[in-house]
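Hi F.,

I've been meaning to write this up properly since the lab meeting, where we talked about keeping a consistent format for the predictions we share between groups. The idea is simple: the sequence comes first, exactly as it goes in, then the structure tokens exactly as they come out, then a line or two of notes. No screenshots and no reformatting. I'm using this chain as the first example so we have something concrete to point to.
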Amino acid sequence: MKVILGLALLGSLFGAGWRVYRRLPSDATLRNVESAYGQANTRLIMMMSNGLIDATLNSPVELYPFDLTTIQREFQAYRRASKEFDDLLARRMQNVTPLKTPTDSKGRAVTFVSAGSWWLHATASLANGERLEWRLPLKIAGNEQTVELTTENAYERSKKF
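Output, unedited:
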């Protein structure tokens, strides 16, 4: 009788563990969720606009749990002639680790992040040799959010000769 009860207990523990295991996210999603600094419950989709058909979004897209607009306001309020904004930004982001999200074959990047202030950094290459760079402050909320990368919201557009 004890042997039968022991086997039944082991079988039920194995079955419960198997049900939990089957519901776990894939390894790539799990890595992104674990590194997303908290309760990663918002699906964030980053994609190129239709106007940038010939653009290739360089992988990975970097997301930082960082409020860029606060730093911009601080820079404007306490501007020093010898300091550049990029210097202040680099100093403040020294210990902030980015969440790197790879792009898929369509040039889209999808990850899960927690609600709050984030900063997106991405680059793309155009067929004519130009390079676009985005530095976008993001306010993340809700279950799903889409960010469209366009020429209008690009931080910098450059071309090497």
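Notes:
The helical segments are 2-22, 27-34, 68-77, 85-92.
Residues 1-25 form one domain.

If this format works for you, I'll send the rest the same way.

G.
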